[in-house]
Amino acid sequence: MNLPIYSENEYLLAVDRLALHVNNKDIFSVSKQNGGVGLTISKDLSKKMYRQSYYKKCLFKDANLMNIGFAGSKFIDTKFEDCIFSNGNLHSCTFKDVVFTSSSNKTNNLDNAGFHKSTFTNCTFENLFIYSSGFTETIFFRVKFINCTIRLCSLENAQFADCTFINVNMSTLNIEYVDFENIKAQDCIFPFHTICSAYGLLSQLTEFGNNKIFSAYSETLSIQEYKKLLPDFQKYYCKNEKYFPLTNIYIATNELDLAYESIMAGIIRTIQVRDFRSLKYFCKLVYLNNIFSVKQRRFLYENINKWISTEQFSLAEYHDYQLSASMIRDLLLNEDSKKPTLIFYLETNINPYEMEKQVAFLT
C-alpha cells in the first residue's frame, strides 16, 4: 500500500491541534484505552470515550461508568459488580459470558443506560433494578435474569431466545413488539396489557412456574385467570382496530383463519394511516409463525403492492415506505424462520417504483 507514513512528532502536533476544537479531549487522546485481559477496574471512568474496546476475563467492580462511551465494544467472560451505568452509551456492543450483578443480596441499579442493538450471549443479570434503559433491537440468547425488576425500558424489536427468567418483576414493562422464543419463567410477574402485543409470549405462558400477571384490581392474576379474559381482549381490540394483539390472540387460540383475516385488516389499516413501522411488524408476525402457506404469504405481498400503488403518497411518506420495503418483501417471500429458504434473483426491466408492473409480474 502507498499510504503516507508520519513521524511521532507530526502525529502529536496533529492531535494537539484537533483537541483544541472539542470539549471531550479523550476523543483525540494519544493514550487510547482499547481494553485488556484479566484486568480489575474500579476507578472513575465517567465521561471517558472507550469506543470499540475489547475486554476479556475482566472485573469491573464499583466502577463509575456514568456517561461512558463504550459503543461497539466487546466484553468476553467479564463481570460488572456494583457498577454505575447512568447515561452510559453501550450501543452495538457484544457481551458473551458476562455477568451484571451486585456483591451482596442488595439490589443494584442499572438505570438510564443505552444498550441498543447489542447482543448478549450466555449472560446473567442478577439482583438488579433495571430502569429506564434502552434495549431496542437487542438480542438476548441463553441469558438468565434472576431476582430483577425491569421498568420503563425500551425493548421494541428486541429478541429473547432460550432465556430464563427467575423471580423477575416486569409488571409495568412495555413489551410491545418484543420477540419471545422458547423462554422459561419461574415466579415472574408479567404486564397485563402488552402480553398480547409481544411475539410468541401469550402462547408460551402456561400454569407451570407459578407465574402471575399484574392486576390493578386484584394485584395479580394466575395465567388461567388471565386467559379467561381473552374474549374480552378480543372484543376490545376488534372494536378499536388494534389488529396486532388481536392476531396474537387468534394464533394462541389456534383460530388461524381469523388470524389471517386480522393480519389483512391490520396491513390495510397501517397503509391507510401511513404507519409503515407497524406494517413491517405485521410481516414479521407472519414470518415468525409457521402457520401460513407460501400462497397466503405471497397473496399478502401482492396485495401490499397493490394497495400501496393506489395510495397518493407524499415524497416523505413514500421514502418512509421504501425504508421498509425490502424487509417486507424478505419477511413475506423468504419462507418462515423455521425452514430453509432457497433464494434466487431475476433481472427485469421493471423499475422499483412501478408497483403495478411488479404485481402483474408476480402473479
UniProtKB/TrEMBL annotation:
Gene3D superfamilies: E3 ubiquitin-protein ligase SopA
Coiled-coil segments: none
Pfam families in UniProt: Pentapeptide (PF00805)
UniProt cross-references to InterPro entries, sorted A to Z: 5peptide_repeat, PA_immunity-related
Protein name: Pentapeptide repeat-containing protein
Organism expressing this protein natively: Faecalicatena contorta
